[in-house]
Design a protein that fits this description.
4 helices; 151 residues; Rossmann fold; 5 strands
Length: 151
């Protein structure tokens, strides 16, 4: 089963796209009758406690969803490698979370990062027009990527 983690600050404009896409995915999966449904988490930031979710026996792979500044394309997906570099402070990374899960619980999981192009990060509770369009594309891409059958 997939674990999908969308993260970002919904009070900083486009930075809120990750949680919005995750919430939309959770709503979609709640309305869909399939035998295996991904677990979806929408959060403000990555924290070490998320390693507990990653290590769960039913979780086989993880998709992280976040916004990236200065990204040329609307969305991009790339594989992640666990990385022990970094700190467990305000800059927790998906790579470090994968490493924590593998190291602390002996449960390595493959991971991918789906990034959404972001341009406006001022104090705002709405996405920019371009981030809204990119978020819709990210929603579709996440569905296709995590679906056991073509969507």
């Amino acid at each position: 089963m997939w674990l999908i983690i969308g993260y970002g600050n919904p009070l900083r404009g486009d930075d809120g796209a990750g949680p919005i896409v995750a919430e939309n995915l959770a709503e979609y999966f709640a309305q869909t009758q399939t035998t295996v449904q991904p677990q979806v988490i929408s959060t403000h930031q990555l924290t070490p406690e998320l390693a507990l979710e990653i290590k769960a026996p039913q979780i086989k792979q993880v998709l992280f969803i976040d916004v990236k500044r200065h990204q040329e394309v609307a969305t991009s997906i790339s594989p992640l490698q666990p990385d022990a570099c970094g700190s467990c402070g305000h800059q927790m990374t998906p790579q470090l979370l994968l490493q924590l899960s593998a190291q602390l619980y002996q449960r390595p999981r493959p991971g991918w990062l789906l990034t959404i192009a972001g341009h406006k990060f001022d104090f705002a509770e709405r996405l920019s027009t371009s981030a809204t369009a990119a978020s819709e594309s990210a929603f579709k891409q996440a569905l296709e990527f995590t679906s056991p059958t073509p969507v």
